[in-house]
Write a structure and sequence with these properties.
With 272 residues, this protein is α/β, with parallel strands linked by helices. It has 2 domains: 10-236, LmbE-like (Rossmann fold); 245-272. Helices cover 42% and strands 15% of the residues. It has a 7-stranded mixed β-sheet with strand order 3-2-1-4-5-7-6, sandwiched between helices. Strand 2, helix 3 and strand 3 (80-86) form a beta-alpha-beta unit. Helix 3 (58-75) runs antiparallel to helix 6 (189-197). The chain starts with 9 loop residues before the first strand and ends with a helix. Bound molecules: zinc ion (ZN). Zinc ion (ZN) is lined by residues 16-17, 20, 130, 133.
Length: 272
């Protein structure tokens, strides 16, 4: 299993704004969806602050951007988009958001979660990473580990039929320097651009094709990939434990307990 060919059974992408996925990881998600993965998008805000036209209300902006997000997801072969509808521009990485993300992880039970890099503050000399990006990336990491996989944390979610789930891997979208894994998106490059174009309210006179293609070509350079997306991958669950548990921490606990007992019994027998 190499990073080039790895296809998870399911993936959940967690981002702040409607077009964040298309800018960062839509090529990878479209590739996985094409190969049969169940992919879900989780958008923390609906981008209601992202339309500068004063004649369009915040409520209308939200509707427009949610429809664009649905369309972008469809283009990538993704059927489910979850909107948390936190106010655009005001996201905080607080306990409430952590819990709302844990709820979705426990409901969807993804093998892989994709999110942004919470450590990026100054990605280059002309941009300060958006506070919503930082807050959502932080809340996502804190939800993924350890909260989501701990049965006694947010245990009240059991009343909704939602139980602890520990994802197998976390894919963090990175700006190259910290990347450990490159996903070849040559086959889904056109889909990524078309999905980005679905965010028509954000494109104005900007046709994203050339620039997005240039960035993806740059990322794929030297990796025998025409176009690529870059990630830092954190593996939370070994292959063996994942096969055994599919993310259910109780199963892992029971298997370890069983092994411990067997060992103790064997030692007792040997001691006579
Ligand atoms: Zn954004």
């Amino acid at each position: 299993m190499t990073s080039k060919t790895y296809i998870p059974e399911s993936a959940l992408a967690i981002v702040a704004h409607p077009d964040d996925i298309e800018f960062s990881c839509a090529g990878t998600l479209a590739r996985w969806a094409k190969a049969g993965s169940r992919v879900v998008y989780l958008l923390v805000t609906s981008g209601d602050g992202g339309i500068a036209d004063p004649s369009i209300s915040k409520e209308d902006a939200m509707k427009i951007r949610e429809a664009e997000s649905q369309r972008a997801a469809e283009i990538a072969g993704v059927k489910e988009v979850v909107f948390l509808r936190v106010t655009d521009g005001m996201v905080e990485a607080n306990m409430e958001l952590r819990k709302r993300i844990v709820r979705e992880i426990r409901r969807i039970k993804p093998e892989v979660v994709i999110a942004g890099d919470p450590t990026v503050f100054f990605p280059n000399e002309t941009y300060i990473n958006h506070p919503d990006h930082r807050a959502v990336a932080t809340a996502a990491m804190d939800a993924i580990f350890p909260a989501s996989g701990q049965p006694h944390v947010f245990q009240e979610l059991e009343a909704e039929g939602l139980f602890a789930h520990k994802p197998r891997k976390v894919y963090i979208s990175v700006w190259d320097a910290n990347a450990s894994t490159y996903v070849d998106i040559s086959e889904t490059m056109d889909i990524k651009i078309e999905a980005l174009r679905a965010h028509a309210s954000q494109m104005m006179d900007w046709g994203p094709g050339d620039e997005i293609r240039k960035w993806a070509a740059e990322t794929g350079k030297g990796k025998e990939m025409d176009y690529a997306e870059a990630f830092r991958v954190i593996t939370l669950e070994s292959d063996e434990d994942w096969e055994l548990s599919k993310g259910d921490p109780v199963k892992i606990y029971q298997a370890r307990e069983q092994r411990r007992k067997e060992k103790a019994e064997k030692a007792a027998k040997e001691a006579g």
